[in-house]
Amino acid sequence: MPVLVASDLDRTLIYSAAALGLTMPDAQAPRLLCVEVYQSRPLSYMTETAARLLTELGGAAAFVPTTTRTREQYRRISLPGPPAKYAICANGGHLLVDGVSDPDWQARVSARLADECASLAEVRDHLMNTADPLWVRKHRVAEDLFAYLVVERELLPQEWVKELAVWAENRGWTVSLQGRKIYAVPKPLTKSAAVREVARRTGADLTLAAGDSLLDADLLLAADRGWRPGHGELADSGWTAPTISALPERGVLAGERILQEFLRAASPAR
């Protein structure tokens, strides 16, 4: 019985040094494997145990990395195990098949965005006009699909984030605060839509998923079973659903636990 595993990457399976959450004594810390290098420096990690589990998962299921990262950012990551035939980037805006973006999928996404929500230009202008340079460090547009800000969290007014969320909601967009980044993403741009397309193409009978942020909620709900770690937007808000398991682990050890759960769920089907 074909099994599809669609997982968010950052703060779900892979972790920056700041997000590792190593609370144990140094001598008891797990061995780490670097899985991403940026500007000649190590950037993201998983435990060596998680790396072994991910390699094992590649033999039990079709593993689909599912990320809000751009294609360029995704390609910096070198995950253990067999290369993924399918990968989802830009929050569902790009469906990669053997590393190449599927043009038919791109066209379908573009048509939905044009029909169902305000333009990227309008949203970007609003961010430029309302975000205070005092706490904004960078304005970015990803793949001409969505926008995000890099901010100083300690200076960021929470009221501004709430007001932005209401403004965006009325225009068919979603706002998500993840670490030092504030994302503004069109509602039709979803990981779940892309995962459903991969499930259709692969004939998957069982879909498993994991994620930590608001932008992962639709992905988790679209899966037959889903898991979220003990950190992140979803955990902070207490978000859950009948098919979702809320794990207690936080930081890089949560990635290990998620992969254990994937393997347990996939193995009986295999």
TrEMBL record:
This is HAD family hydrolase. The keyword Hydrolase applies. The lineage of its organism: Bacteria, Bacillati, Actinomycetota, Actinomycetes, Kitasatosporales. InterPro entries: HAD-like_sf (IPR036412), HAD_sf (IPR023214), TPP-like (IPR024197). GO terms for molecular function: hydrolase activity. Signal peptide: none annotated. Keywords: Hydrolase.
